[in-house]
Design a protein that fits this description.
8 strands; globular; eight-stranded mixed beta sheet; alpha/beta; 298 residues
């Protein structure tokens, strides 16, 4: 019988990345293993890309959670000059985000990572989706030379929140969630099952998809142009999450696919750093219900 493999996918969602981090903290507590010892392939979008990078580098989930607790003053600082110059297009400069990410990734390239990752971004000039991965004999070998800090920054540059980020040899990019990869589960599976030389087999792979929380409908309609723009961007980033899970389950019927995405008590914006404490409370309460040993053997 072939050895069972495990693949992890992490959604975008800004500061709500605390939710999947709480699940991963519980995973590492229950198994006494680091995430990269369990998952040989991790895909992430936006905040999921930041977490993916940290896990791939061997940083413990608890340490990453501590990083997120202190994220606000380093990343979510409104640059009023940029805001005015961009005619209100962006709230935050992207360079502090890149500096923050590089503080723990250094100058490591994708090819230098010990496990396989997939980071998503969208090129602004033509809307082309990019899936940044290590080079191997089964793919185009066009992104492995890129610095991890650059592709993660591009993936996390959510429109209206951060200004776009230039990735060398690729172009100006924004959040990979613009389109269909807010939940990168399906794209991660396609990459692993068709374009990896590790030879993942759906029948012997457990696929775990971590969301950043959801709320039921019921919020009032946007009241002005700016609110409508933010609503549209939010829908672009969040709406595909359940759809991608369903497509994955239908396409890769023989794999064991587990979606972990708790319902939040109330809506929380991607940059709402004041809700960090509440996010951790909700995330830890949900994570304590997870039986990771059972999930990983499905």
């Amino acid at each position: 019988m072939a050895t069972k493999k495990a693949l992890l996918s992490i959604d975008g969602g800004g500061i709500r990345g605390i939710i999947p981090l709480c699940a991963l903290v519980e995973l590492e507590r229950q198994t006494s293993l680091q995430a990269r010892q369990i998952f040989s392939f991790i895909g992430g979008t936006s905040t999921g890309a930041i977490i993916t990078a940290g896990l791939a580098l061997g940083i413990k989930a608890e340490q990453l959670l501590e990083v997120y607790r202190n994220l606000g003053p380093k990343v979510f600082v409104t640059d009023w000059l940029l805001f005015v110059r961009s005619i209100g297009s962006y709230k935050y400069a992207v360079e502090p985000l890149r500096k923050f990410i590089a503080s723990y990734t250094g100058e490591v390239t994708l090819n230098e990572l010990p496990i396989e990752v997939m980071i998503t971004a969208t090129r602004v000039s033509d809307g082309h989706p990019w899936f940044f991965v290590r080079d191997n004999n089964a793919n185009g070998q066009s992104t492995g030379h890129l610095k991890l800090a650059d592709v993660v920054t591009a993936s996390a540059a959510a429109p209206t929140f951060f200004e776009p980020f230039y990735v060398p040899t690729i172009g100006v990019c924004v959040d990979g969630g613009v389109g269909v990869a807010g939940n990168p589960l399906y794209q991660s599976c396609v990459e692993a099952f068709y374009y990896s030389d590790t030879h993942y087999d759906p029948a012997t792979t457990t696929v775990i998809s971590l969301g950043t929380g959801f709320v039921d409908g019921g919020s009032s309609a946007p009241g002005n142009l700016i609110d409508w723009v933010r609503w549209i961007v939010g829908e672009l980033l969040d709406a595909p999450s359940q759809q991608q899970t369903q497509i994955t389950e239908r396409h890769f019927k023989t794999s064991a696919t587990v979606r972990i995405n708790p319902k939040l008590d109330y809506p929380i914006e991607m940059d709402d750093v004041k809700s960090i404490g509440e996010l951790e409370r909700m995330g830890r309460a949900y994570a304590q219900q997870l039986d990771w040993k059972k999930i990983l053997t499905m």
